[in-house]
Task: inverse folding
């Protein structure tokens, strides 16, 4: 199979979908790998390294996309990239289509088969391809929040861990999954007063056992959120429903209750955000102010630490890229359950229930059981 690796075009996105070592694995298995010139430079990988491992360096984005059977990326494709796609191609990347319906429209029109890293889901509900980037984003969220709490950055001028005789900052983490667990680890390590709010009592029990009094756990409820948001210095939004839009658990009224100079880092922004006042931002202009509260809504947080992120991502995606290349796209998503769950669009039809529900009034066509038709095709 011909596998294409384009250079990411999102603003300040320095990650690349495949390391040179990953290219070597694919080439050794008999596949052809096309890497756009300069695609790995942001992550510290030169064209020569890819070429040494057997990849072909291609000069233009158009060539990479038009010649590939399977395109592997990091972030969702841009309209320009989709314009170069051919009908029937396959795409393997982070999609987050619930938050960007215009991208879904274009992929549907091109009859692309698209698998989202963030919706590849194991039987136990875990998300193996989202996990490493969630770990990165979770750890960074508290570091970022601590930075913007500085007075010279527009914050209230509060040190996260306080000092002797001075109370630490209050960090509230909304969602106890992978992002939440990593954010908690960093916040506790920096000496903050930490609240973790989640709807799962079982998940909160894990935090109680792990931190033994260093973290206060609370079951999510509107009244609880109202009470805690008022005293929060840094709020980390870490809510996720695979494939679907994040629920708006923090209303504008609640944000208004926060003290001026407080900070919100909404990691859920990829899926629309869990804070009503959140909107997507970029690494160039990461923050904006609403009701005196700083909002950080960068949609590709791990892109600022690309060496760590690219290696972490390739570690988990490469086995699936190999399976897709060896078995073919249709057979792989039919026989590997987690890949089947990760399928968002099949030949131009939206087949993921969460994505389909979130797209709302976008006209989508799903003719019966796509798996049965796949077997017949």
Result:
């Amino acid at each position: 199979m011909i596998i294409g690796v384009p250079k990411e075009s999102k603003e300040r996105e320095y990650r690349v979908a495949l390391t040179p070592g990953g290219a070597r694995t694919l080439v050794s298995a008999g596949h052809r790998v096309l890497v756009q010139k300069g695609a790995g430079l942001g992550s510290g990988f030169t064209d020569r390294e890819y070429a040494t491992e057997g990849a072909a360096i291609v000069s233009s984005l158009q060539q990479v996309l038009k010649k590939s059977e399977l395109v592997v990326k990091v972030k969702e494709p841009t309209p320009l990239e989709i314009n170069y796609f051919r009908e029937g191609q396959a795409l393997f990347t982070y999609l987050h289509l619930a938050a960007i319906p215009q991208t879904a429209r274009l992929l549907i029109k091109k009859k692309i088969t698209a698998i989202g890293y963030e919706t590849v889901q194991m039987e136990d509900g875990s998300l193996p391809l989202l996990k490493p980037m969630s770990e990165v984003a979770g750890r960074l969220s508290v570091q970022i929040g601590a930075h913007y709490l500085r007075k010279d950055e527009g914050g209230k001028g509060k040190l996260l861990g306080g000092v002797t005789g001075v109370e630490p900052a209050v960090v509230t983490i909304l969602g106890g999954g992978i992002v939440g667990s990593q954010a908690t680890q960093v916040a506790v390590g920096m000496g903050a007063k930490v609240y973790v709010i989640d709807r799962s009592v079982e998940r909160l029990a894990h935090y109680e056992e792990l931190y033994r009094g260093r973290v206060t756990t609370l079951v999510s409820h509107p009244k609880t959120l109202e009470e805690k948001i008022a005293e929060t210095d840094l709020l980390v939004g870490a809510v996720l429903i695979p494939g679907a839009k994040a629920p708006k658990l923090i209303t504008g009224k609640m944000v208004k209750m926060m003290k001026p100079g407080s900070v919100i880092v909404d990691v859920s922004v990829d899926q629309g955000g869990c804070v009503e006042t959140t909107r997507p931002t970029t690494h160039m202009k990461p923050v904006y102010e609403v009701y005196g509260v700083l909002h950080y809504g960068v949609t590709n947080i791990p892109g600022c630490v690309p060496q760590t992120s690219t290696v972490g991502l390739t570690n988990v995606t490469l086995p699936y890229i190999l399976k897709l290349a060896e078995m073919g796209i249709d057979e792989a998503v039919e026989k590997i359950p987690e890949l089947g769950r990760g399928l968002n669009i099949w030949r131009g039809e939206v087949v993921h229930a969460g994505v389909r529900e979130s797209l709302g009034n976008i006209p989508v066509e799903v003719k019966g059981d796509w798996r049965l038709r796949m077997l017949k095709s």
